[in-house]
Amino acid sequence: MRIFILLLLYVTQFLYADQELHVVFDNSNIQYNPIYAVSSEEAQLFTALHEGLVSVHPQYLYPVPALAKSWKIDETQTIYTFKLRDNIYFSNGEKIRAQHFVRSWMQQLKAGDQALFSSMFDVIQGAKEYRNTGKGSVGIKALSDNLLQIILKHPTPHFLKLITHHSFTLIHPSLLTETDWSHSSKLIVTSGPFTIESFKNDSIVLVPNKYYWDTISLSKITITFAQDFIKQQLTQLFNQNKVDWILSAAIDAKTLENKSSIIISPSFSSTFLFFRVDKNPWDNPKVRIALAMLLPWQIIRSTTLLPRAANTLVPTIDSYPVPKSIKNQDRKKALTLLKEAGFSKDHLLPAIRIILPQTMVSEDMNLANILQGSWESITEKVEIISVHEEILIPTLHQKTYTVGTLLWIGDYTDPLAFLEFWLPDSELNFSHYDKQQYTEQIQRSMQISDLSKRYKLLSQAESLLLENAVVLPLSHGTSINIINTTRIKGWYPNPLDIHPFKALSINNNANLLDLVTLR
Questions:
Q1: pLDDT tens across 51-80, in order?
Q2: What are the C-alpha distances in Å from 128 to residues 79, 109, 295, 403?
Q3: Half-sphere exposure of 28 (CA within 13 A, CB side)
């Protein structure tokens, strides 16, 4: 009996004490400031550190109350009044008030072109003008300590989805003028369920924010980075339950004991080429369409070369009409279009500079060779600039090029997550595309609440991008996670590949049978 009681006490302690989650990120180049962050791993980290008015449901991704416990929308569908919870505090114990949101969101609008998501605020009255000029009033108002009013320019059916994005999370006032937060964890006062205990070049350790309003199961989260492991070592650590969740990092599948831990699911993401259209001759649709028609799409979009190959920019959404696009190679028509634009073998196109991520220049998927082989006979030169994925977006901002490449995960589950890119005031408009017809289509769609009519307009807008070869879609993405969902509860595959840390817990019952047998 005594042995049984001791065993019971031991098991009980084991079940409730071991709530430490060990996670491996692929990318160590973490930007801790959500104003300037762009990567999916940063977005995942921010589910622990920063919280906004609303968050996402961990499985179905619809908006759920977070720092705001409720909200009201007026009859015009343009005024949102959020009521904050009474028991919300920053990790330093300071009370969170509506004015904090005003200051935090206004800082986004002041941050300049390095804040790539600041144009997402443009649906708010006066935000676009303030972002571009630093002048005017903005429809973000603290009515009282716990009432925040947001006034929109027009009805925006996806607004609640929009503000689940990390750009709308709350930043403590002490950090608003700090760009680089990586030099000291003590400076990072958080508004989310966790705070930083320590971080180094190779790891981050998070512990619960003791002032957080909601319950949290995990007692600690340790995040390390994949480059510190070889495949076999990382796989062995996972087999031994010393690593619980691996995000997109390479493992040795042959030695992985629990093959069902490999979870591959469709993601709301798209990989595409795009033209810079702000300079001659690339501003001429005939030239772009011709170059697109010279490409062997049956090879490029084969499932061998590109899993989930696609000819649309927006990934599949229920009830969203399929847009028109360039699907096939047509060399004869391409040469005719080039001739009409004034180009031929005797008058070649200027040099084409293409920025590609390193993975597309590899032997397994050499898109570079396909592009060069298709275009070298009609241009002075085809130059490939290969860059690491971690610096792809800064490179697209800084370099002079003809064709760029981007792999983009939608920030919220709506077509506008991909179509707002191409508005003239978007910080993500690397193409410098500026067409009135497109802008008007997008703006009209934002004012329509009927989903089918709204999607029809957005699909027509996407057709303008694809038929005029501003954007050349390649594929839609998949997410890869290595995780034992029997042991880690509250984790669900979803299209955004975002899994709020506060929803996770460790089910030590999964190891209990082995423990009792061993005793």
A1: 999 999 999 999 999 999 999 999 999 999
A2: 17, 8, 38, 28
A3: 11
Q: Which residue intervals of the chain bear CATH 3.10.105.10?
A: 266-478
The type of residue at 423 is: L
**3-class DSSP assignment, residue 31:** coil
**In the chain, which residues fall in CATH 3.40.190.10?**
183-265+479-518
CATH architecture of 266-478: Roll (3.10)
Among 238, 208, 239, 207, CA closest to 222: 207
Residue 92's CB: how many other CB atoms inside 10 A? 12
16 in helix, strand or coil?
Answer: helix
Report pLDDT for 250: 77
Backbone dihedral region for residue 77 (phi beyond 0: left; psi -120 to 50: alpha; all else: beta): left
Q: Which two tokens stand for residue 147?
A: 């009432």
Residues 262 and 271: beta-carbon distance below 8 Å = no
CATH of domain 51-175: 3.90.76.10
Other C-beta atoms closer than 10 Å to the C-beta of 219 total 14
- DSSP strand pairing (245-247 vs 20-25): parallel
Strands 352-357 and 488-489: unpaired
Find where tokens 């989930």 sit. 308
Q: What is the pTM assigned to this prediction?
A: 0.89
Dihedrals φ, ψ of 308, to 5°?
60, 40
Q: Which amino acid is at 105?
A: W
Query: Which CATH code of 2.60.40.10, 3.40.190.10, 3.40.50.10610, 3.90.79.10 fits the domain covering 183-265+479-518?
Result: 3.40.190.10
CA-CA distances (angstroms) from residue 285 to 113, 220, 295, 382? 27, 54, 16, 19
Strand partners, 505: 489
